[in-house]
User: Fold this.
Amino acid sequence: MPTLTPSKRLYQIIALGFVILALLSGLLMYRSYHLNVMQLEAFQQKLAAAASGKQELTDRYYRWHALAAEQEAHTLSGLRADLAATNVIDNEAAARLLIAGATHYLHDEDRFQAWLNEQLQTIETPSSEWTRISLASGAQAINTGQWCLQIEQVADTWLLTSLTDCALATP
Assistant:
């Protein structure tokens, strides 16, 4: 049996340490990836449950101000287009006057949550047919047929950050 010199023994211990570190690193990366995928799937199931009316999406799972700003901009655009088809002298001023009344529900948390859940419940496509795409920002885009949703991971949860009509979102 060959004898090991102290330097050879040291190299073996160091090599074994590197192997153990590599295995632990790989295990932690796999666990992190698996946990992320499971959280994403769980959030999509939460969205599907809200779409089917089985449960409501609560404010813990969406960015209220981002969604409200997006909806207000969409409503303002629609008001401008509608007023442009009339004989209103100043379409922009008229739209600005009407926007507060047209979007009052966006500024009350309870009314907004009710509106959001109503919008999600208009999704007719089964969740098994929704398509999800990873965006460069790390966010996920979900096309449900009618609504195009965008979700982002914040800390250990996913949040709905955008809800747009797919017919308007695609050229």
Remarks:
- The mean pLDDT is 88.
- The first helix runs from residue 6 to 52.
